[in-house]
Amino acid sequence: MKISAGMKGIVLVIAMLAAVAGFATSLDFSINITPEFTIPVGPDSAMFTPGGGGTLTADLEFFGFLAPTLEFGVYINPLKNLDKSVILTRFGAGVNYFIYPIPRLKLRAGVALGAYIGSYEEVYTANLFWKAYVQAGFRFTPTFSLLVGAGFSRYESSPEPFYTGIQLGLVADIQLSSLGKKDAGVSVETSRDFPVFPILYASYGSRPIGEISLTNMEQAEIRNVKVIFNAGNYSSAPMLCGEYPLIRKGASVDVPLYALFNEQMLTFTENTKIQAEISVSYELLNAPRVATVSKSLPLNHRNAFTWEDDKIAAAFISPNDPAVLDFSKFV
Description:
By secondary structure, the chain is mostly beta strands. It has helices spanning 3-22, 322-330; strands spanning 28-40, 51-61, 66-78, 85-99, 105-120, 123-141, 144-155, 163-175, 186-193, 210-216, 222-230, 235-237, 239-247, 252-257, 260-261, 272-284, 287-299. Strand 16 and strand 17 (287-299) form a beta hairpin.
């Protein structure tokens, strides 16, 4: 097997996946560099001794858990009692499923199918191969993980398989689509504003004053997300508006805004605006982060109201008013 042919295969894999990534910039495009130790199994263990090689794999991740792959690999399998080896060169495609059960842990399992060329001195053979594998590892950063993996490969031939073996390897997982980019935090955009009536200030703990769209712009998923609204002197306490255990990279959620207003709201005799604050706290790979956004909140004057619920008229009656007390005695 000529080295130049192998180099051409590597260049071809990188070029093809770079072209795909160009049409999918919103997706995570990554490469895996995997040096491996190979162990022949079954009847092949009588013919071959343990060998080694490596695989270059490229992934294009969808939905935060699924990735179609392309791969190129070269393996050297020494023959027993001979100072010679069989070289297996393969090119294939597959799919893997991955999860992050905890922030720093990545688990992945997949399958692949393709074609191989086996060479021994000047003799060549070609056929199909398939493999299955599992991997687990540590995420050092959102763009780099180091995993250990184990797999099983079978190189078909007739009437018997050409080679069957187990691979044990170390996987360097690099996300090229995010490499060199800085974390962009979270995006907070106002999607809806509802009219706020000071006379109803006590009801806004369960009645939304508006809605925001929260988008994860970080390089990885964020966890333990909390959204808090605070209107400063016009709030009796900050209000927790929403909690989310996980928001995937690039995903958005709609968060209704609630407020714990106090009686200071009844001091407005004209329509006005007040400055409020939206605070978003979350964790990125176990590191706590906080994003704060100012919001201008329009308010109606204290005597304004809406007839969507006619019981609102009771808000203008004080139970301590002398006329009400006098009337209640007779009732």
